[in-house]
Amino acid sequence: MTHTWIEAPTLRAAGVKHAFFTREGGVSEGVYASLNGGVGSNDARENVAENRRRMADALGVDAGRLLVPFQIHSPDCLTVVAPWADRPRCDALATATPALALGVTGADCGMVLFADPVAGVIGAAHAGWKGALTGVIEATLDAMEKLGASRAKTIAALGPTIGPASYEVGTEFFAQFAEASTDFERFFSPSPKAGRKMFDLPAFIGFRAKSAGVASFENMALDTYADETRFYSYRRCTHRKEPDYGRLVSAIAIG
Fold it and tell me: Which pTM value belongs to this model?
């Protein structure tokens, strides 16, 4: 089976092994078709395991060395040096260990891959609105620095994420950002619906990464909600009242 994934030009140019996997190229069926990487979904376990194996193969690592945490929308980043027995509860990973692939899942939330190619340090972060607001980007860079990375040499790339034209929110949501900083209000625009706003999550993630001092930030501008052929979307699933949804995986490895 041919693997299908997307690469960020900046990471590819630096020789960093990575993949923003789409929903194509797997064995799952129905609402999960076809490369569902979500162990937290109600998809058949054997299908998810095979999909994960294909992802690991694309990254050139053993299936047991593709590490994806139990995500809880936190700002927490864990440094890893070897595969684990039980998935840790956190939303970002960092490592300087070769032949380990770090992954995160998403179905509208931002998935950010980081690399300092010179130091040989990588990171992956699940950045939904809550994680991005509370500091998961900065925590990932802090963990990478402790492993020898330099922010001034770190490349960050944002994969499939719900886009600004698809993310409508209410006043309470907006208030949380405005309370944190009035500067954050610029990431919201009026919605056609009264009392609602549109939120630009990719731009907010980019702002946090750039403010944290990365050398470059690349927004792949891939809207999970709008592109049903390639991406799963929690919000699209909810609007359609579907029973469940698949999860995308984005992952990065040191060769």
Answer: 0.98
What is the crossing angle of helices 136-146 and 201-211, to 10°?
A: 40
**Average confidence (pLDDT) over 94-123:** 98
CB atoms within 10 A of CB 166: 19
d(CA 26, CA 54): 8
Other beta carbons within 10 Å of 44: 14
Token digits for 192? 């056609």
Q: Where are the domains of the chain?
A: 5-164+200-253
Which of 46, 64, 44 shows the shortest CA–CA distance to 55?
64
**For all residues of the chain together, what is the average pLDDT?**
97
DSSP 183-246: GGGGGEEE-SSTT-EEE-HHHHHHHHHHHTT-SEEEE---BTTT-TTT---HHHHHHHT-S---
Residue for token pair 């092994």: 17
Cα-based distances in Å from 186 to 39, 93, 137: 36, 29, 19
What SS3 state is found at 77? strand
Q: Is the pLDDT of residue 3 over 90?
A: no
Which segments of the chain are extended strands (E)? 5-6, 17-21, 66-67, 77-79, 92-95, 101-106, 110-116, 121-127, 155-158, 168-169, 188-190, 197-199, 216-219, 248-253
Fold of 5-164+200-253: CNF1/YfiH-like putative cysteine hydrolases (3.60.140)
